[in-house]
Amino acid sequence: MKSIYRLKKNYQYNYVYKHAESVADRNFIMLYCASNANPTKVGFSVSKKFGKAVRRNRIRRQMKAAFDAVIGNVAGGYSIVMIPRRHEEYLFDDVQCSVNKLLTKAGLLQ
Questions:
Q1: What angle is formed at CA 76 by the lines to CA 74 and CA 81, rounded to 5 degrees?
Q2: How would you label 42-76 residue by residue, b for 16+ Cβ within 10 Å and e otherwise?
Q3: 40 vs 108: CA distance, rounded Å
Q4: pTM, to two decimals
Q5: What is the mean pLDDT of residues 31-50?
Q6: CATH-assigned architecture of domain 3-104
Q7: Number of neighbours of residue 24 by Cβ within 10 angstroms
Q8: According to the 3-state scheme, what is the secondary structure of the chain?
């Protein structure tokens, strides 16, 4: 995923947490809010409760790859934070399906 589509600073995450609406399924919680960012920016937050660094980085990579496939179809002007919900291994197909479902549910896909 390109750098221009990423939330990078702590204050960006805090803004989303404070002003966000949320949608969820059994795998993920997606927080989103309108922002001044022209391209939509996405951040990924994986708690230490999820497991050791290898497991956290794996799910983060899967979420990034799933968003990379659909980022061109997402409406502009939003900030999004994705949070995994379960503490078990994910298959990439499940991650991709969940990302598409949550974006559709939130009305962010064009």
A1: 70
A2: bbbbbeeebbeeebbeebbebbbebbeeebeebee
A3: 10
A4: 0.92
A5: 92
A6: 2-Layer Sandwich (3.30)
A7: 14
A8: CCHHHECCCHHHHHHHHHHCEEEECCCEEEEEEECCCCCCEEEECCCHHHCCHHHHHHHHHHHHHHHHHHHHHECCCEEEEEEECCCCCCCHHHHHHHHHHHHHHHCCEC
Q: What is the mean pLDDT of residues 45-67?
A: 94
Residue type, 26: R
A 10 A CB-CB count for 33 gives 16
Q: Which residues pair with 84 in a beta bridge?
A: 28
